[in-house]
Every structure is written in structure tokens, then in C-alpha cells.
Specification:
The protein has 390 residues and is mainly α. Helix content is 74%, strand content 0%. It has helices at 9-28, 44-60, 65-86, 92-110, 118-124, 127-131, 136-147, 150-161, 172-185, 188-209, 212-228, 236-266, 269-301, 305-309, 312-316, 318-333, 346-368, 375-384. Helix 1 runs antiparallel to helix 17 and helix 7 (136-147) packs antiparallel against helix 11 (212-228).
């Protein structure tokens, strides 16, 4: 029997970085409750920091932090599946049960936060056991097709081929407005009821309309391939590969970003919407590769290794951190809780997000010195293997 994979610390660091970005972005967004105090009477410096923080955070983490998280979801599946194969077991049906548990966990999270992603992961994650025995080249081809945003290209082709054709308007805006009304004035139980229906419909329709469904599936497959190839191991060959990825991603990102900024000057209407989605998806993917390759190279080749390792406990408890940020965030900003949207603008909310991250990091560091898993990670693991004979 082969030995199971040893834990790969850089994966935990990357996961920690991704969740940190997600937590801070969600806090600045008031957890999908886009209500802010009037800035008319604010000083110019505060208006500047509001704009600089918003633009800087979304440039760095918007559409990228979640992509890193999705990539590592596929990577983690490979590690679990391959560990069981080394023991002579087939993990695929057990993983489907694990996804069913994640669906339940996701609905618990959704009761507090309309923008949660675990339900989507539980549904899309089915692609992993369906494809995990296919050859690398087939998995890569599927991942590339999904990441290219085939549905949006279909819309573009239809609009160019059929004069006057425009796709139907999406539903995400309708459900977002319904959610906003309850966030702004509902009780706790009214908010929970809204979140579990209109909030989930908003979340899934938004993901569908913004290409996240296809992109997430593609990232899951790429993460699985990354595990197969052992790309997160600190070998000389891998470090050369990540350097090539870093250079290539940087070369690709800036033209894509420039193209995205130019589109409004040359295209309008629904065609512009689809092209912007496609180009921004590609640009975010490229910048995600910049983040991943940059962290891997810093982790293995510089003295920042020790500093980056401080994020490892945070990454190991990513599920616990993700769930608790939803509970805390909704309590801080929604009407049923402290309703801080009346007082906190973007700069102050950024400070709250940083404080929340620091508090979570301190708790994770303390907890992981005493336990092998975070609280929710332990429950998910125990549930995954329930009924399994040793």
C-alpha cells in the first residue's frame, strides 16, 4: 500500500490568501448589502481613500480570490481521491456524499449571506468524480472549453449572425432588489427566509449570468490536474514552470485589461455586455495565475517563506472562516443586527474587514496548535466518513 500524500503547506497558504481576500471584499461590499452613508459632507481625503480602496481591492481580489479558492477545491479533491486509491478504495461515491453534506452546509451559510458559494460548489463539484478517471489531455481540453465561456460566445455569435437579436434580460437584478428590501428592514427570521429562497435565486442567477458556473467548473478541473502533476511541490522543474506561468500571465493580463477598458468606446448594448464578460473572465484568470505563481515562487525561493506560513492555519480552517464571516458580517451590517451600513463607508468597512481577518487568524493560529482540524472541517470530515468501517 502506498503512503498517502503529505500535507502541502503552500496550498494552505494560497487558500488562506484567497479567504482573506474574500472576507475583506465581502466586508467592503457590506455582504451584498450595497448601502452606504452619504459622502457629500465627507472630507476629500476620505472620499479618495474610499475610491482607492474600492478600486484597489477589486483589482487585486475581485474575481481572483474566489478563482484561487475554486482551483484549490479541485486540487483537494485530487489529494483525497488519490489517497484513497493508494489504499485500494474508490472515493467517487464517498465524494458525492461529501458534496451532499456541503450542500447542507451551504444552505446553513446561505441563511446569513446571499453571496455564499458553497451551494454552487456542491452542485458543480459533481464534475470532479465524473471526470477524474479521464486522461489528462481530455480533462485539460474540457477545462479550456469551460474557461473560454462557451455560452457567452454563443450569444455573441447569435447577435452577430441575426440582426436585431438580443438575449433576454437576466433575473439577478430582480432577486437582488427583493433581497435588498429585506436586508434594509427585515427581522432576523424574515432575513433568513429571504436568504434561503430569493437570496439563493439571486446568487445562482448572478453566477449563471456572469459566467461563474462555467469558470468554476473549469477551475475545478484545472485544480485536479494541478494535483495530478504535483505542481505545488517545490521541485526545481516546478519552480521553472511557475516562473513561465508568471511571465505568461503578466504578458496576457495587461492587454486583456486594456481591451476591457476600451470596449465601451467601440461596442454597446448586449454585445458589449457579453464581450466584457468574456474579456474580464480571461483577465481575472490571468491575474489569478499571477497570484498563484507569485505566491508559490515566494514561498519556495525567498525568505518570505516564514511569513507566508503564518497564513497556513487560516487556510487549513478556510471552511470555518468562510462560515463565520457570513454570520458576523450579516450581524454587523443587516437591519436585523447592528445595521452599521448607516455609519460605515468603504474606508471604515475596510478597517472592519481587516480586523475580522486578524481576529480569525489569531483564533486559527491558537486552535491549530491544539487540534488537527478546524471545527467545521472536523464535522465535515466526520460526516464524510460516517458509516465507513475501518
Amino acid at each position: 500500500m502506498q503512503q498517502p500524500h503529505a500535507r502541502i503547506d503552500v496550498a494552505d497558504v494560497l487558500r488562506g490568501l484567497a479567504v482573506m481576500g474574500i472576507v475583506i471584499l465581502h466586508t467592503v461590499e457590506h455582504f451584498n448589502f450595497y448601502s452606504y452613508p452619504d459622502t457629500a459632507g465627507q472630507c476629500a481625503l476620505l472620499r479618495f481613500t474610499d475610491r482607492a480602496l474600492w478600486d484597489g481591492l477589486f483589482f487585486t481580489f475581485g474575481g481572483k480570490a474566489y478563482a484561487v479558492f475554486a482551483l484549490l477545491f479541485g486540487f483537494s479533491f485530487f489529494i483525497q481521491d488519490d489517497n484513497q486509491r493508494r489504499r485500494g478504495r474508490d472515493f467517487r461515491l464517498r465524494f458525492l456524499w461529501r458534496l451532499a453534506l456541503l450542500l447542507v452546509i451551504g444552505h446553513f451559510n446561505a441563511a446569513f449571506f446571499t453571496g455564499e458559494i458553497l451551494v454552487m460548489y456542491a452542485l458543480i463539484g459533481v464534475v470532479l468524480p465524473l471526470t477524474c478517471r479521464l486522461p489528462d489531455r481530455v480533462v485539460l481540453a474540457l477545462a479550456v472549453v469551460l474557461l473560454l465561456q462557451p455560452m457567452e460566445w454563443g450569444k455573441v455569435a447569435a447577435m452577430l449572425a441575426v440582426p436585431g437579436y438580443e438575449p433576454q434580460a437576466g433575473l439577478a437584478g430582480y432577486y437582488a432588489q427583493r433581497a435588498y428590501e429585506v436586508q434594509a428592514g427585515g427581522t432576523f427570521w424574515e432575513t433568513v427566509r429571504m436568504n434561503l429562497w430569493d437570496g439563493q435565486l439571486f446568487n445562482m442567477t448572478w453566477a449563471w449570468e456572469h459566467g461563474r458556473i462555467f469558470q468554476t467548473a473549469g477551475l475545478f478541473l484545472l485544480g485536479m490536474l494541478m494535483g495530478r502533476r504535483g505542481l505545488l511541490l517545490g521541485t526545481e522543474r516546478n519552480l521553472h514552470r511557475w516562473l513561465v506561468v508568471l511571465i505568461g500571465a503578466l504578458v496576457a493580463f495587461f492587454p486583456l485589461r486594456g481591451l476591457y477598458l476600451l470596449l465601451p468606446d467601440f461596442v454597446d448594448g448586449a454585445l458589449r455586455t457579453s464581450l466584457e464578460l468574456i474579456v474580464s473572465s480571461y483577465a481575472n484568470f490571468a491575474f489569478m495565475l499571477v497570484l498563484v505563481s507569485g505566491v508559490v515562487l515566494l514561498f519556495y525561493t525567498t525568505r518570505l517563506h516564514g511569513l507566508l506560513m503564518k497564513l497556513s492555519p487560516y487556510g487549513r480552517m478556510s471552511l470555518t472562516n468562510y462560515l463565520t464571516q457570513s454570520i458576523i458580517g450579516s450581524m454587523l451590517f443587516y437591519h436585523w443586527g447592528f445595521w452599521l451600513v448607516r455609519y460605515l463607508g468603504i474606508t471604515a468597512s475596510f478597517g472592519v474587514g481587516v480586523a475580522l481577518f486578524v481576529a480569525q487568524l489569531a483564533f486559527c493560529t491558537w486552535w491549530m496548535r491544539r487540534h488537527s482540524h478546524g471545527p467545521f472541517e472536523w464535522l465535515w470530515k466526520k460526516g464524510t466518513w460516517i458509516g465507513k468501517k475501518k
